[in-house]
Amino acid sequence: MNVSSDGRCAFVKKTPDCNMVDGFIDYLQVAFCLLPPNLTPLTITLCMIWLLFLFVILGLTASKFFCPNLSAISTCLHLSHNVAGVTFLALGNGAPDIFSAIAAFSHPNTAGLAVGALFGAGIFVTTVVAGSVALVKPFVVASRPFLRDVSFYMVAVFWTFLMLFRRTTSLGYLSLYVVYVVIVIVSSFIYQRQKRLMFSVMGTCVCVCVSESEYRPLLPSTESTCQILLTSLNPVDSRKWRRKPWSWRVFKVLKTPVEVLLLLCIPVVDPDKEDKNWRRPLNCLHLITAPLVCVLAFQSGVYGDYKIKGEFPLWLLILLLGLFLSAIVFCSTSNDCPPKYHPVFAVLGFMASAVLISAAASEVVSVLHMLGVVLSLSNTVLGLTLLAWGNSIGDCFSDITVAKQGYPQMAISACFGGIIFNMLFGVGLGCLVQMIKTQSDVQVKGLLTWILTGALGLSLALSFITIPLSRFHLDRGYGIFLLVFYAAFLLVALLTEFGKIHI
């Protein structure tokens, strides 16, 4: 930005660090070569709209496709709820954060974006989200799970600080999450055993059954193949539409085109339904579209132009194989009964959604990198604000909703338990990818990085000390304190970014 406006395009084209190879679009060339300098405000506005669209893709793909297919895989593998919750479902919930971190770490210039996003999201969730839950529904925290999660999170933060300070990583860092999973499983087993013993002594049995049989038709109805396809591609639930507010309906209308495109490309298997979400015409179409999505979107489309032996396009081979498999499945199955190999569609949906999340995360990192150049902001401050807010806002609303419905304990557990996975795997795998790819150490430096680490560690330490002293009662006063803490952290971070605070 110190170059004159006329020379910026030439600077972008000839400078190697300006070559953005990790996305579908070269945003720096769009900002400085395609659009004239006097339209910079329009460029920023369009990028913010595109960034919002990418966050919608990330959220929809993770919640509607990635998580359900992971749940189906864990069910097929007969995993317990505890194991599935801290492994597969933790990966599903943290997929946008983890893929964004890996995409940012893959380029040395954007490593600060990943650190800012992971630490910024950690501070946001443990202060704003946890404080909002306390304001909405004051409650008593379960002591042992809370102390366990906060203790592991503090260890993870301290280890991350050491790793970034020494510019290296180790397998022991990633194995910390394995220790966490083992402790969660063992403690849950002990708790359930004690609970069964207590109920056997009391002779009490409580059974809760939830069923949607009231919505089923009295007489079975047969739909044509065309009707099944059209119904499967309709993402709007009429019952939910009638009872939702107008704001939800407006947002639903805006994201419906994206959801329809995702429904066309990604299969979803639901073990809780009688038909396992088997949709014969749509699932046969998925055998064509899902592999094509994997080829065209993997690593931002580098294999889109790949030709086998320099002659036959890879995408054409995948298309022909998909057509062949689709014809076989369509002719050998019926609309009413899912085939025995239907769980394979969960694996296909998992792969396609993971590739799409990775591609969207790479685009988010590229857009934020360009905004950092245009606005003269560091990648770290963009990570702790835009990227952290974008990846965490869904968790914020969902946890507050869960608390309003009378489950604040579940909401507060999600605040502290889920982000342990995000930090360990986001930073650990990201650093390993960068070291393997660039054959160099992780380069993360600056006062703002240490402010992030210190603020997150301080917020966890305050919760670790204050909540037990208040007999694990989370009231509105402590919720207000957490919100004030985040506002103070954000103020200090921004003052540091603009040079008002320095060492």
From TrEMBL:
<dbReference type="GO" id="GO:0099093">
    <property type="term" value="P:calcium export from the mitochondrion"/>
</dbReference>
<feature type="transmembrane region" description="Helical">
    <location>
        <begin position="42"/>
        <end position="62"/>
    </location>
</feature>
<feature type="domain" description="Sodium/calcium exchanger membrane region">
    <location>
        <begin position="49"/>
        <end position="185"/>
    </location>
</feature>
<feature type="transmembrane region" description="Helical">
    <location>
        <begin position="111"/>
        <end position="134"/>
    </location>
</feature>
<keyword id="KW-0472">Membrane</keyword>
<protein>
    <submittedName>
        <fullName>Solute carrier family 8 member B1</fullName>
    </submittedName>
</protein>
<feature type="transmembrane region" description="Helical">
    <location>
        <begin position="447"/>
        <end position="465"/>
    </location>
</feature>
<dbReference type="GO" id="GO:0016020">
    <property type="term" value="C:membrane"/>
</dbReference>
<feature type="transmembrane region" description="Helical">
    <location>
        <begin position="282"/>
        <end position="300"/>
    </location>
</feature>
<dbReference type="InterPro" id="IPR051359">
    <property type="entry name" value="CaCA_antiporter"/>
</dbReference>
<feature type="transmembrane region" description="Helical">
    <location>
        <begin position="171"/>
        <end position="191"/>
    </location>
</feature>
<keyword id="KW-0109">Calcium transport</keyword>
<feature type="transmembrane region" description="Helical">
    <location>
        <begin position="343"/>
        <end position="361"/>
    </location>
</feature>
<feature type="transmembrane region" description="Helical">
    <location>
        <begin position="410"/>
        <end position="435"/>
    </location>
</feature>
<dbReference type="GO" id="GO:0005432">
    <property type="term" value="F:calcium:sodium antiporter activity"/>
</dbReference>
<keyword id="KW-0812">Transmembrane</keyword>
<feature type="transmembrane region" description="Helical">
    <location>
        <begin position="367"/>
        <end position="389"/>
    </location>
</feature>
<keyword id="KW-1133">Transmembrane helix</keyword>
<dbReference type="InterPro" id="IPR044880">
    <property type="entry name" value="NCX_ion-bd_dom_sf"/>
</dbReference>
<dbReference type="InterPro" id="IPR004837">
    <property type="entry name" value="NaCa_Exmemb"/>
</dbReference>
<dbReference type="Pfam" id="PF01699">
    <property type="entry name" value="Na_Ca_ex"/>
</dbReference>
<keyword id="KW-0050">Antiport</keyword>
<feature type="transmembrane region" description="Helical">
    <location>
        <begin position="312"/>
        <end position="331"/>
    </location>
</feature>
<keyword id="KW-0406">Ion transport</keyword>
<feature type="transmembrane region" description="Helical">
    <location>
        <begin position="146"/>
        <end position="165"/>
    </location>
</feature>
<feature type="domain" description="Sodium/calcium exchanger membrane region">
    <location>
        <begin position="346"/>
        <end position="494"/>
    </location>
</feature>
<feature type="transmembrane region" description="Helical">
    <location>
        <begin position="477"/>
        <end position="496"/>
    </location>
</feature>
<keyword id="KW-0106">Calcium</keyword>
<dbReference type="GO" id="GO:0006874">
    <property type="term" value="P:intracellular calcium ion homeostasis"/>
</dbReference>
<keyword id="KW-0813">Transport</keyword>
